[in-house]
Specification:
It contains 19 helices and 39 strands. The chain is of the alpha+beta class and 815 residues long.
Length: 815
């Protein structure tokens, strides 16, 4: 009665949730009108949760609904909806716990495969160890497969029993500790210890004998599948990387378990792993069958309390050298070297297959022996043996080579009794340029040194000379082109493409000029000069003639008679330019003039005053007292020679010059600075101060200023106002005076016109250069590390000066 009242309350709750049913009165007749398809998942879930919370099971709830008048079709729909919701909820809950579900709703316990990722350290040379480098969930059992027919049920397994056809019903049944499942109105059924197929037959027979009699006639069918699977405990002992007891799913196979435990360790066997069940070994596993052949016959399902034992290896050998898979291999007692060779993939392409070197441990020490090929199938290795497969020697046993003026040069097979004539015929015969007077054979002697054998090529071809060949003979046929100089002619001067050209028979002057791209516009075609060497000069004469000069007039074009002049090998043809032709020369003027820019020189000797006049003279802001001209250097001295001059002139070490950018800019730059004082130039136009300009000159007229720059080894390098009647010392003091690293002997002044003056000395007196606006005082640094002592000549000079001073002092004292 209480259950009925509660069902009415639940149905009332459903009606409250669903507005479509609110108008219906709550009585037994109302359940006949309920449509499960009109109910949402949330409504059905709320209905089910309220029933469960009051102690009702799903089957009890559905039975009450049937009694209250709900149609059988709606009951079946409600059963399927509840089963789907329960499966979905279980899947979501287990996913959050790292569990796994299958397409059939199959689940495993959250701790069944809880094995963390772990990197394993092992000997990578052991064959098969690469499979177990890391153990993780990557090697978990595949739960998304149909239930194996040989799967043995046990406690905690869940069975899904679906009845369909004339009757429709779904049961979710868990195997209890006694090994039974309980079906309402049917009773307990023993399934533990039976396979899934056997359990299905037992359930089907029991249902047919009780509440679903249509099963016998085939009108109702029963489907039994595995839902939530149980966990089992498996123990791994022996030489495993991670021995211990593991809780895993009941679908775990032996290979899955080996992955989880990290496989055999460095001492473990790959060939004799034991599966112990019921205290008896039931299977011996050889992993080489899987590694080499892919066989999975030993990958059996594990059962509760199974033990996997990994013993020590008994025989392990090593193979190195020219083998496809070198490493350490485990062997069984009866296996021979042939079998071992197959484990390593066989010989590599470069291996010598005739003999294998074996290193074996014995009571007296290490023994080396040679294993020949015919003994491979009978030789039984021992543990600790090391096999070394050598590479084949890199030499040919039947090769001869022909090279040079032959149609098909290269390597050929040396056949027994093969002659040189036969080799030349196989190689396609001689080329047209072959030198038939002599050929050479480079032959290797028994001691691997070489000797040379000559032959007459034409006699070999005709059969007069018979030459037998040896292994590694190299036959050389020389080309006549290799026996003479390369014939060239040279074309230079005012042509588009001057250079050397190959001489050919009947080459004319016209042909050569056409090869050179023709004349330039500047060419003097009226006087083309051919220089021809004289082969046999009369060297007994004092002034013998070496070269013949031929002058040809081509002013009327290449088709003129002179163009047909025949050339000889090594002729030199020179096309000169017109005498009065010169490329326009240009200069550039910048700074404080009225019109800056590029100017073309009007005359070969145009002077500075003329260009300044053409530029509109100076602006009011110009410092006309000094003009700087930068001219591209065409030095006759190297940079090192110029450094030596600066070193002597300013008494500065060469390393100081290299380190000091200021000295580099002023004395070692790529242009020369020419200084001109325009005030003196105006007094004598065309005189020495009025310089003749050259192509590429850059004239710079600076802005007027009254500042003096002080740079180098002073405490405050700066700009100071110019003062009349002052010298460099005055401005050095204004810049804070010398630093401790100042080279006082090397002080120099750079004037605006580019000139430079250094400090003058007489005995103990110094004379500093005078200054002008825009000049610069530079104090270089001293370099103690490169300072040199006086040489013998300098010591003599210093001694002479001291002696003269001493004589002078004595004379003064005597007076």
């Amino acid at each position: 009665m209480k259950l009925t009242c509660f069902l009415v309350l639940i149905i009332a709750a459903i009606f409250t949730i669903n507005p479509r049913l609110q108008a219906q009165s709550i009585n037994s007749e109302n359940l006949k009108q309920v449509k499960v398809d009109d109910l949402s998942d949330a409504e059905i879930k709320a209905y089910y949760q309220k029933a469960v919370s009051s102690g009702l099971s799903e089957e009890q709830l559905l039975t009450i609904a049937t009694q209250r008048g709900m149609p059988a079709g709606e009951i079946s729909k409600l059963r399927l909806r509840l089963a789907g919701l329960n499966s979905k909820s279980a899947s979501i809950a287990d996913t959050s716990k790292n569990a796994e579900s299958t397409s059939a709703g199959r689940l495993i316990n959250e701790d069944a495969m809880n094995v963390p990722m772990q990197k394993l350290q092992r000997d990578s040379n052991v064959f098969g160890s690469e499979l177990f480098t890391s153990s993780s969930m990557v090697f978990e059992p595949n739960l998304r497969i149909p239930t194996p027919s040989n799967y043995i049920l046990g406690p905690d397994d869940q069975l899904i029993v679906n009845v369909y056809g004339y009757s429709e019903q779904s049961y979710s049944l868990t195997v209890n500790a006694e090994g039974n499942i309980y079906i309402p109105n049917v009773g307990p059924i023993k399934v533990s210890g039976f396979s899934i197929e056997e359990a299905g037959d037992r359930i089907r027979n029991k249902l047919a004998a009780t509440i679903y009699r249509a099963i016998s006639s085939g009108q109702t069918k029963v489907e039994v599948s595995l839902g939530k699977i149980r966990s089992i405990r498996v123990t791994v002992i022996g030489q495993a990387s991670k021995p211990g007891t593991y809780t895993v799913s009941s679908l775990t196979t032996l290979f899955n378990m080996l992955y989880l435990c990290g496989g055999p360790n460095e001492m473990g066997s790959f060939r004799n792993i034991e599966l112990i069940r019921g205290n008896k070994p039931v299977r011996f596993i050889d992993l080489y069958n899987f590694l080499l052949l892919g066989e999975r016959k030993d990958n059996v399902l594990l059962q509760e309390q199974d033990v996997i034992r990994i013993p020590y290896y008994s025989i392990r050998v090593q193979m190195n050298g020219a083998i496809k898979r070198p490493g350490k291999f485990e062997l069984k007692a009866v296996e021979t070297f042939d079998k071992l060779l197959s484990y390593g993939g066989g010989f590599s392409d470069s291996a010598y297959r005739g003999i294998v070197q074996v290193t074996r441990l014995s009571d007296s020490g290490i023994v080396i022996s040679d294993l020949v090929a015919k003994e491979f199938s009978a030789f039984v290795p021992r543990t600790g043996d090391a096999f070394k497969i050598a590479k084949n020697i890199n030499r040919f046993s039947n090769r001869v080579t022909v090279e040079g003026a032959i149609l098909r040069p290269g390597d050929f097979e040396l056949k027994p009794g093969m002659t040189l004539k036969q080799l030349l015929e196989i190689a396609g015969g001689l080329r047209e340029d072959a030198f038939t007077e002599r050929g050479l054979i480079k032959r290797q002697k028994n001691d691997l040194t070489y000797t040379t054998k000559s032959f007459v090529v034409r006699d070999v071809i005709s059969g007069k000379e018979n030459v037998l060949l040896n292994r590694e003979d190299v036959v050389s046929i020389t080309s006549i082109l290799d026996l003479r100089d390369e014939l060239l002619v040279n074309l230079g001067g005012s042509v588009r493409n001057p250079g050397d050209f190959n001489y050919t028979d009947s080459l004319t002057l016209k042909d050569l000029i056409l090869k050179g791209g023709g004349f330039l516009e500047t060419a003097n075609t009226a006087s083309v000069e051919i220089s021809r060497r004289i082969k046999n000069p009369d060297i007994m004469q004092r002034n013998f003639k070496q070269t013949e000069i031929i002058t040809v007039d081509l002013s009327k074009g290449l088709s003129s008679e002179g163009g047909e002049t025949r050339l000889m090998p090594f002729d030199v043809v020179n096309v000169r330019a017109e005498p009065g032709y010169n490329n326009p020369r240009q200069i550039y003027i910048q700074g404080e003039v009225m019109n800056t820019g590029r100017y073309i020189l009007q005359a070969s000797g145009e002077r500075l005053s003329s260009v300044i006049k053409r530029a509109g003279s100076f602006k009011g802001s110009a410092d006309s007292t000094s003009i700087t001209i930068r001219r591209i250097i065409n030095p006759s001295l190297t940079v090192e020679e110029r450094q030596a001059i600066i070193e002597r002139m300013l008494n500065i070490s060469r390393d100081s010059i290299k380190k000091d950018s200021r000295l580099q800019d002023n004395f070692l730059k790529d242009v020369e600075l020419l200084g001109v004082n325009y005030l003196r130039l105006k007094e004598n136009i065309g005189g020495n101060e009025d310089l003749i300009l050259e192509n590429g000159d850059i004239i710079d007229v600076a802005r007027l200023t009254n500042l003096v720059r002080v740079n180098g080894e002073v405490y405050n390098p700066t700009l100071l106002p110019f003062e009349n009647n002052t010298n460099a010392k005055y401005y050095i003091k204004g810049a804070g005076n010398f630093t401790s690293n100042a080279n006082k002997k090397g002080i120099f002044v750079i004037y605006p016109d580019g000139r430079a003056k250094s400090v003058k000395r007489f005995l103990f007196f110094k004379s500093y250069p005078s200054m002008s606006p825009r000049s610069e005082v530079y104090v270089p640094s001293k370099d103690q590390s490169t300072r040199k002592g006086f040489g013998p000549g300098e010591w003599i000079a210093v001694s002479s000066i001291i002696a003269s001073l001493a004589t002078l002092i004595v004379a003064v004292v005597n007076q």
